[in-house]
């Protein structure tokens, strides 16, 4: 599981600059039962595009790169 978490953290580190360029940020919380739990921060909080960013970008990339992942959840 540590290897999976390392992959997740590495991928999120690659995504962070894009999110930060829009005034937001993403924090890795944990990986449990196939779900990656993150916390969206900054401008992402309350943003109307949050679900799109989370599902169509972050989740899609993680699902493609890490087969152990079945979903991504935002902890607000």
Summarize the structure.
With 76 residues, the protein is α+β, with helices and mostly antiparallel strands. Helices cover 46% and strands 28% of the residues. The protein has one domain: Fe-S cluster assembly (FSCA) (GMP Synthetase, Chain A, domain 3), CATH 3.30.300.
If you had to describe this structure to a student in words, what would you say it looks like?
This protein has helices at 2-20, 50-65; strands at 24-32, 35-42, 71-74. The protein is α+β, with helices and mostly antiparallel strands and 76 residues long. It has a 3-stranded mixed β-sheet. Helix 1 packs antiparallel against helix 2 (50-65). The radius of gyration is 11 Å and the shape is globular. The mean pLDDT is 94.
Quickly list its features:
76 residues, alpha+beta, GMP Synthetase, Chain A, domain 3, three-stranded mixed beta sheet
What topology does this entry show?
Blueprint: H1 2-20, E1 24-32, E2 35-42, H2 50-65, E3 71-74
Parallel strand pairs: 2-3
Antiparallel strand pairs: 1-2
Helix pairs in contact: 1-2
Specify the number of helices.
2
Major sheet attributes: 3 strands, mixed
Helix/strand structural class: alpha+beta
Assembly classification: single chain
CATH superfamily: Fe-S cluster assembly (FSCA)
Portion in beta strands: 25-35%
Task: Give the topology string: H per helix, E per strand.
Answer: HEEHE
Number of strands: 3
Mind telling me which CATH architecture this is?
A: 2-Layer Sandwich
Radius of gyration: 11 Å
- Based on CA inertia axes, which overall geometry fits? globular
Q: What's the number of domains?
A: 1
The overall pLDDT, averaged over residues, is 94
């Amino acid at each position: 599981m540590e290897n999976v978490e390392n992959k997740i953290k590495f991928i999120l580190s690659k995504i962070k600059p894009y999110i930060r360029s829009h005034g937001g940020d993403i924090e890795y919380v944990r990986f449990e039962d196939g779900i990656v739990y993150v916390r969206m921060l900054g401008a992402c909080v309350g943003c109307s595009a949050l679900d799109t960013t989370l599902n169509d970008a972050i989740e899609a990339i993680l699902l493609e790169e890490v087969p152990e992942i079945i979903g991504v959840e935002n902890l607000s």
